[in-house]
Amino acid sequence: MKFKILITTLLFSLAFATPVVAYTRWQLRILKRTKECFFCNLSNINLSDSNKYQKMNVTGSVLQNADFSGTNLEEANFTNTDLTGAKFESANLQEANLQGSILKSTNFWGANLQEANLRGADLTEAIFWNADLRGADLRDTDISNASFIDAKLNGAILPDGSIYQYR
């Protein structure tokens, strides 16, 4: 009788257990091997301080709270990706495509976003302190409560379509 109660309790506990990691091992393996993972859930992934992800393509994926700090993501494709709360501190996102992505509360402190495509992205409460956004396309973005302290914006296309010219 005690054994049945123990088994029932164990099965009940497992049924309602929540995973700590949001992504699966095969999705991570695919990304590491091919630098592609379309419509994957890679939330909470840590790919910081890496030079392996240039031209990575994660179109349509969910990467909430991912850490890309110090990573070289030059020409990476994050089109229509949910990057809410992600960290891109000192990351290289030169010529990256972030068009239509959700970047709420994302940290781009010191990141290189030269010539990046952020068109139509949600940048609500994003941090761009000391970031390099020269030549970036910010048309149709939501920059509500975003912070651009000491950001380089010369030549960037602003949300209203005008070009930022610092004199």
Structural Rg: 19 Å
Biggest sheet details: none
Secondary-structure content class: little secondary structure
Low-confidence stretches: 3-21
Quote the distance from N terminus to C terminus.
82 Å
Shape: globular
Number of E-type strands = 0
Report the total helices: 2
**Into which percent range does the helicity of residues fall?**
10-25%
Q: In sequence order, what are the helices and strands, one letter per element? A: HH
Mean pLDDT across all residues, rounded? 90
Q: What fraction of the residues are assigned to beta strands by DSSP? A: under 5%
Summarize the structure.
With 167 residues, this protein is mostly loops. The protein has helices spanning 2-15, 25-34.
Structure description:
The chain is built from two helices and no strands. With 167 residues, it is mostly loops. 43% of the residues are buried. Residues 3-21 have low confidence and may be disordered.
Keywords:
disordered N terminus, little secondary structure
Please render the helix and strand layout as text.
Elements lengths: L1 H14 L9 H10 L133
